[in-house]
Amino acid sequence: MEKPAPLGFGLGLRPVYYQEILEKSPRVDWFEVISENFMVPGGRPLAMLERIRGTYPIVMHGVSMSIASTAPLDFDYLRALKSLAGRFQPEWISDHLCWTGVHGVNLHDLLPVPYTSEALDHIVDRIRRVQDFLGRRLAIENVSSYVTFTESEMDEWTFIRETAERADCWLLLDVNNVFVSSFNHGFDQASFIDAIPADRVVQLHLAGHSEAVTHKIDTHDQPICEDVWSLYHEVCPRFGSISTMIERDDNFPPFDELMAELDRARATAACARTPAHEAAA
Amino acid sequence: MKLAELQMRFQAGIVKGDNAILASIVDSRRTDRATLFAVYHDAYRMRLAEFLSHDFPVLRVHLGEEAFGRLVEDYMSAPSRQPNARWYGTRLPDFMQEMAPWRRNRSAIDLARFERALSDAFDAPDAPISTIDALRDIRAEDWPRLAFEFHPSLRLLDLAGGTAQIYAALAQEEKPLVIRQGEEAILFWRNDGQSFYRPVAEDERLALLEARRDKPFGDICALLAFQNNGDDVTWRVAGFLAQWFADGLVTRLSISD
Is A146's CB within 8 Å of B36's CB? Predict the structure, then answer.
């Protein structure tokens, strides 16, 4: 099982930054694109992606696969995803360990699953079927969640590890989501991180979130907070050289501010991977 | 509880506000389960409202925050069935046409149709456009049988008179005008990644409708001549044709059988 080669440090490709990216060719190693934003018949989004793909590697990140839903797999969606991947040749395709609706409804959210053996069997089967259809491994991401189900029979990290190993898929570890969920549910971040099989993690996400006093919400509309930087510093040694990207989906700052965050991610990773005695010397 | 039942209850809690799902959720150390579940319930509404605000910014200004909020709530009563948020608002103009009190508001309905057409043109399928130079290869005797194919982004709508002016005024934060008596035809299309629109006169509208129905140049001229008491309209139609090329509307010429 050979993981894809690390891509370095990337950003989310968002329309508000297209012009700047095309004009300045910024020092971003790769871009992550929201798959659904480009699942359109034609026009500017696809033309922009064509141009940017000519210069940068990309990864496709979806929000609508609904891999944990009890609704049937949406093969129209999967065909469109496969077609997009065939055209733009992403390094990998990712989506979330969540569901987005049942009975034909789409709630446009990353909804939580109960950590039960029934859900595990169901999700493993679906990931395998999707991987067979796409002809490649998926990378599955842990989501931020706000509720704990009485039905759950295991920890989130056990559920994720079992999912990855039984479905034989990659993992996308969202550091911010670990932080947000650990606050909301009161679990130990280290327990989560230590349980994640490092050999399956192909990518890390960093992002900002919002505070709601009694809970935190994964909004991607703020800079990365110091606690998440600190957690990123802690997780880096465990995963070695790994593709890392910053998500920003609202309240967009000037592009230079994202570049500054990306430089900080580079520096944090370099520092975290340097053994203490070398850093001191 | 089985996963399918839990997901059904969770969805009903978000869409309809049913409380049954709360029995499957535990309080956190800091707050109660209802507050935590409300994160999903509220985010759903905010997200759908954002989709509509993004796709219908001028309609929102036209209606004002309060009325637009009511429209969003009304439209939300049927949940989204689109895997892609891009298509969530597609039915909004039809919904307004069908539902009270919106169906009485012609200017709002036509502004919604206007903005929908701009969005549809924006990401319609691609096709290479043809330049006016392509006409050089057409022999004089073939002109009457000259037929046209148009860019897939082209939309031609009949709207309440003044809709385009209202749109332009509101988009530039100017005082809006009121709709006029009668209708106006507005042409929408995309060129070089950007959506455009312009009003078209009645004879150009007719020429476009016929051309899109595969009627050749000769037939279009004959129809317009008939409508103009037999006057020769060939140069007028040729003028339309030149403008269609300049706009980037024509993708292919052919000689019909």
Answer: yes
Q: Say if A150 is an interface residue toward chain B (CB within 8 Å).
A: yes
- Domain of residue A113 covers 9-254+262-274
Question: Does position A281 have pLDDT exceeding 50, yes or no?
Answer: no
Residues in chain B with pLDDT values less than 70 = 176
Distance CA A7, CA B231 (A): 68
Cα separation values, A237 from A278, B102, B114, Å: 14, 59, 54
Cis ω before B101 (30° cut-off from 0): yes
Residues 6+ apart with CB under 8 A from B78: none
How far apart CA A40 and CA A195 sit, in angstroms, is 39
**B80–A70 C-beta distance less than 8 A:** no
Instruction: Give the pairing type, strands B146-150 and B250-255.
Output: antiparallel
Inside any domain, residue A171: yes
The answer to whether residue A48 sits within a structural domain is yes
Average pLDDT over residues A61-66: 97
Q: Identify the closest residue of chain B to A211 by CA–CA distance.
A: B39
What are the phi and psi torsion angles at A88 (to 5°)?
-105, -5
The residue with tokens 């110091």 is A226
Nearest to B124 among A42, A47, A185 (CB): A42
pLDDT digits (tens, 9 = 90+) for A1-31: 789 999 999 999 999 999 999 999 999 999 9
Q: Which pTM value belongs to this model? A: 0.93
Residue in A48, A105, A145, A152 to test binding to B, most B beta-carbons within 10 Å: A105
Beta partners for residue B157, in sequence order:
B186
Q: Which of A41, A104, A111 minimises the CB distance to B10?
A: A111
pLDDT, position B222: 93
DSSP 8-state symbol, A7? -
What does DSSP assign to residue A222? S
Closest in B10, B11, B83 to A74, CB measured:
B83
Out of A40, A101, A184, name the one closest to residue B86 (CB): A40
Residues in chain A: 281
Helix (H, G, I), strand (E, B) or coil at A77: helix
Domains along chain B?
A: 1-104 (no CATH), 125-257 (3.90.930.50)
- Average pLDDT in the A171-198 region? 96
C-beta atoms surrounding A150 within 10 Å: 12
Question: Is A3 inside any structural domain?
Answer: no
Q: How many Cα atoms occupy the beta-carbon half-sphere of B137 within 13 Å?
A: 9
Beta-carbon separation of A64 and B194 below 8 A: no
Cα dihedral sign, B38-B39-B43-B46? positive
CB contact under 8 A, A44 and B29: no
